[in-house]
Amino acid sequence: MLAEQRARIILEQLSQHQTVSVTDLCQTTGASEATIRRDLNALARQGRLVKIHGGATSLEEEEFLAREPDLATKQRYAREKECIARYAASLVGDDDVVYLDTGTTSLHMANHLKDSKALFVTSSIDFAGMLSAHERRVYILGGALKPGTVDIVGAEALAAIRHYNFTKVFLGTSGVSLSQGFTTPDPEAAALKALAASRSHSVYMLADSSKFGRVTAATILPLNEAQIITDRLPDRKYLDSTDIIAV
User: Fold this and answer.
1) Taking Cα atoms as reference points, which of 107, 100, 103, 105 lies closest to residue 77?
2) Exposed e or buried b for every residue in 63-84, given b needs 16+ CB within 10 A?
3) pLDDT 10s digits, 211-233
4) Residue 36 contacts by C-beta under 8 Å, 6 or more apart in sequence?
5) Does domain 71-246 have CATH number 3.40.50.1360?
6) 123-134 pLDDT tens trace
């Protein structure tokens, strides 16, 4: 069977089932696993499917967000974010060195960390203030204030974070996509999040269920480089790319 014929069959199977396995495609086409994997890689490079462990999934119907959501939008899903924050805070031990990102869900975490003896590093002035009021150990990154916020970004913040080694990092994201990974509208914020993740033993992405299937301007990380803590998993196909904790 020609490569073009196999490609047509693969795409037809995806249109019917959304997700296909290498094993099933071998049975359907009579081709070897090595051949099917090459076909999937070629189709993924062409942007016609998303390659996942053991097979492929169809491209998402993704919502692209060109701008950062306004404050009213960010404050939606308050109950879900509170559940996520409570669970995330429960993962922090007294011996941890924790980087906590900016974002509404991260701020919810502060309410559950008032008695923690962990060492915290953050780019959020709000978060630092909330914890320091309870005499917790908090370091805040130096750098530029992001316009319209009390969050630190920029080259100085990137330089500062290189002085730390974290046991756990908790990050916010504006989008969760199989094809584009975790994304945020601000490239400077994306760079800071990615660097923090690279300096940590464990990385957790705090993402309520509304973030799935969304893409914004700058990629933070591929999905397989962070565990997701969410209120609800909209589609089980994401489980092929990373570990997901639904609280």
Assistant:
1) 105
2) eebeebeeeeebeebeebbbbb
3) 998 889 899 999 999 999 999 99
4) 6, 10, 22, 25, 26, 29
5) yes
6) 999 999 999 998
Half-sphere exposure of 104 (CA within 13 A, CB side): 18
Place of tokens 């590093």: 121
- The CATH code that applies to domain 3-59 is 1.10.10.10
Domain ranges of the chain: 3-59, 71-246
> What is the chain's pLDDT, residue by residue, as a tens digit (247 residues)?
888 999 999 999 887 877 889 999 999 999 999 999 999 999 888 878 878 778 887 766 566 776 666 655 666 788 999 999 999 999 999 999 999 999 889 889 988 999 999 999 999 999 999 999 989 999 999 999 988 788 999 999 999 999 999 999 999 999 999 888 999 999 999 999 999 999 999 999 999 999 998 889 899 999 999 999 999 998 888 888 899 999 9
Q: Which residues pair with 144 in a beta bridge?
A: 153
Helix axes 3-17, 22-29, angle to 10 degrees: 130
Classify residue 247 by burial, with Cβ atoms within 10 Å: 0-12, 13-18, 19+.
middle
245: left (phi over 0), alpha (psi -120 to 50) or beta: beta
Assigned token pair, 145? 């204030």
